[in-house]
Design brief:
Blueprint (H helix, E strand, L loop, with lengths): L4 H23 L2 H8 L3 H8 L2 H19 L6 H14 L1 H14 L7 H17 L6 H17 L1 H8 L5 H13 L12
Length: about 190
């Protein structure tokens, strides 16, 4: 059987996504990624470079998948529902971004300019819903509300109770986004 580099790359990316979501960059092991992908370590380094570069490719791909599945919208409550549903079905996206925050901190991240432009698309969509308030703040809080309960299941359980379901949370996230102020002055204005 002929060697299929495309299939090997896909297996490596799938294995790396799971490994990084579970362990972050520092805790991830290239030998575990290679074993799971049924590839050799040399192929990983040849295709992707070092572990940090592989993480950057994985994160870029996961965020691109998320952006395609949940495009910007002028309907922030509806966007929050779709984003919540996506994170519920694909918790690795949140985990990877959380690992990035833990390991990179407040330093620039790979592809930050492109990612910032993507967030600007969300802000532009929120602004197109009508004037009033700071769309940046509404988008930021929408992202936080849609992701936090998925990212922090232990906090959700301790604060809201063990019987408070993700379906309940989805309804309340949508309600909270709908209640975000639209008449607040943008930062820096008087």
């Amino acid at each position: 059987m002929a060697y299929d580099s495309t299939a090997t790359k896909e297996r490596i990316l799938a294995a790396a996504t799971a490994e990084f979501a579970a362990h972050g960059v520092a805790g991830a092991r290239v030998d575990r990624i290679a074993a799971e992908a049924r590839a050799n370590k040399r192929a990983i380094y040849d295709y992707f470079g070092d572990k940090n570069k592989l993480f950057a490719v994985v994160l870029e791909r996961v965020l691109a998948d998320l952006a395609e599945a949940v495009p910007p919208s002028d309907d922030l409550p509806g966007y929050a529902e779709r984003l919540f549903d996506y994170h519920r079905a694909h918790p690795e996206a949140l985990r990877l971004v959380m690992w990035e925050a833990l390991e990179v901190g407040d330093q620039p991240v790979p592809a930050e300019e492109a990612r910032t432009r993507h967030y600007q698309d969300k802000i532009d969509a929120a602004e197109s819903a009508g004037p009033g308030g700071d769309a940046r703040t509404r988008v930021f809080f929408t992202l936080a509300l849609a992701g936090w309960g998925i990212a922090m299941p232990q906090l959700r359980r301790m604060v809201l109770g063990a019987d408070y379901s993700l379906d309940d949370l989805r309804v309340d996230v949508t309600r909270a986004v709908r209640a975000l102020p639209t008449d607040a002055a943008p930062p820096g204005s008087v």
